Amino acid sequence: MWFDGWPQVMRIVLVGAAAYAALIVCLRISGKRTLAQLNVFDFIVTVALGSTLATVFLNTDVSWAEGVTAFALLAGLQMLVAWVSTRWPRVRGLFTSRPALLLAHGEIRYDALHRNRLTESELRQAVRMQGTGDLSQVAAVVLETNGKLSVITSGKYGDGTALEDIRGIEALGDDDRRRPA
């Protein structure tokens, strides 16, 4: 239980180091997208890669070659999904969510908060973390596809074109979206 012998320890060291190196190579080949800010699909791939690495490290029934094949398959699937979703925007919705407008010109959009399972307190915290203490000074708070909250103050709103792909943007109206800062 505490020590099964040196051969098992050496297997972990050798196969583990080789599997780790193979994972690094796989991630480098698959590109920056694999290591980017995580959306749900990216998170699943990351967890699966970590689980596969742990299995290769500790399970003597799984060979290094099988582990590398699993790494390559996961990275390849992730690359395929990224390729498909950039070519066909409608398919992208299957893998990632759209950003959601949670606050528009100081007005909290409670329907969007509830739909995204967020609290008013979390929204206010995001605004405070941007150094703003007055909601009326905030043009928009957006829940991004990676789960982060973007806070855009009225002074930084500009013409609002960065908000065009956001669910709920119609709440701002055309005049509000294009108004000068």
| Computed structural class | alpha+beta
Count the DSSP helices: 7
Helix-strand sequence: HHHHEEHHEEH
Q: How many E strands?
A: 4
Shape: elongated
Strand order of the largest sheet: 2-1-3-4
Determine the strand fraction and express it as a percent band.
5-15%
**Largest sheet geometry:** 4 strands, antiparallel
Radius of gyration: 23 Å
Low-confidence stretches: 175-181
Count of spatially separate domains = 2
Percent of residues in helices comes to 40-55%
Name the average pLDDT: 85
Euclidean distance between termini CA atoms: 67 Å
Characterization of this structure:
With about 180 residues, the chain is an alpha+beta fold. It folds into 2 domains: about 90 residues; about 80 residues, CRO Repressor (2-Layer Sandwich), CATH 3.30.240.20. Helix content is about 55%, strand content about 10%. It has 7 helices and 4 strands. The protein has a 4-stranded antiparallel β-sheet with strand order 2-1-3-4. The longest helix has 25 residues. It is elongated. The chain starts with 5 loop residues before the first helix and ends with a helix. The C terminus is likely disordered.
Descriptors for this entry?
54% helix, 2 domains, alpha+beta, 181 residues, disordered C terminus, CRO Repressor, four-stranded antiparallel β-sheet, single chain
Write the layout of secondary structure elements.
Layout: H1 6-30, H2 40-58, H3 64-87, H4 89-95, E1 100-104, E2 107-108, H5 110-115, H6 120-129, E3 138-143, E4 149-153, H7 173-178
